[in-house]
C-alpha cells in the first residue's frame, strides 16, 4: 500500500514562530502537494513539486514556502506563523492517475 | 479558473442508495476523482474515472460521467452507517504534473 506520512497529527505554535510540517511518501512518486482544508472552503492548494528541488506556487502560497531536497520528502514551512494559518494541512503524493493523502496535521496558532 | 462544485449535505436511510453530484468547469480534465474523509482523518481515494469513460463500477460504488454537461456522480448502493463521511469530488487536467482541484465536499449522513 502507498503510504504518505505526515510528521505530526496535532501542533500548537505561537504567533511569529517558524513552523515546519514534514511529509514523507514511500512510493517513489514524482509529484507532491500541500493543501490546507478549512470548513466550507474545501481543499486549497498551497504549493506543489514535480521533482526534487522543483516547486510551484498553488492558489494560496502567501506566508508559506516549501522544500524538496529528496524525492520522498516534501516540507511546508510557515516562515512566521499567524493565527489565520490555523488549519488542517494535508500532504499528497501522486504518480500518473492516483493521488494519495497523508492523515493530516491540525495546526493551531495561538 | 477551474471550479468544482458540490451540494453541501445529503441525508439517506440505511439500506437506501446515495447519489452525490458534482459539476466541474475545466473541459481539459483528464481524471475525475471521489475521495472520502472521516472525522479527523485524511482523504481516502475511493475511485477515479478517466475522462473517456462514461461509467465505472467498483463493488457498491458506481461513478457516472457526463462529459458534455461536465457532471460527475457517485452512487453508493445499500448505504451503511459506516458510509457517513464527507465526500470530495476532484478533477485533474493531465496525467501527473498538475494538482487536483477539489469541491467543497458533501457531508453524507446515514440514518439508521
Describe this structure in words.
The complex is a heterodimer of chains A (110) and B (112). The N and C termini of chain A lie far apart (37 Å). In chain A, strands 2, 4, 5, 6, 9, 10 and 11 form a 7-stranded mixed sheet that branches. Chain A has a 4-stranded antiparallel sheet with strand order 1-3-8-7, with no helix packed on it. Chain A has strands spanning 4-6, 10-13, 19-25, 31-38, 42-51, 54-57, 64-70, 73-78, 87-95, 98-101, 105-109. Helix content of chain A is 0%, strand content 61%. By secondary structure, chain B is an all-beta fold. Chain B has no helices and 11 strands. Chain B has strands at residues 4-6, 9-13, 18-24, 31-37, 43-50, 55-58, 61-66, 71-76, 85-92, 101-102, 106-111. In chain B, the strands form 2 sheets. In chain B, strands 2, 4, 5, 9, 10 and 11 form a 6-stranded mixed sheet that branches. A 5-stranded antiparallel sheet of chain B has the order 1-3-8-7-6, with no helix packed on it. The chains are: A mainly beta (110), B mainly beta (112). Chain A binds chain B through residues 4, 6, 30-31, 33, 35, 40-43, 45, 48, 50, 58, 90, 92, 94-104, 106, and chain B through 4, 31, 33, 35, 40-45, 48, 50, 88, 90, 92, 95-97, 99-105.
Itemize the secondary structure elements and their pairings:
The complex is a heterodimer of chains A (110) and B (112).
Chain A lengths: L3 E3 L3 E4 L5 E7 L5 E8 L3 E10 L2 E4 L6 E7 L2 E6 L8 E9 L2 E4 L3 E5 L1
Parallel strand pairs in A: 2-11
Antiparallel strand pairs in A: 1-3, 3-8, 4-5, 4-9, 5-6, 7-8, 9-10, 9-11
Chain B lengths: L3 E3 L2 E5 L4 E7 L6 E7 L5 E8 L4 E4 L2 E6 L4 E6 L8 E8 L8 E2 L3 E6 L1
Parallel strand pairs in B: 2-11
Antiparallel strand pairs in B: 1-3, 3-8, 4-5, 4-9, 6-7, 7-8, 9-10, 9-11
Short description:
With 110 residues, chain A is mostly beta strands.
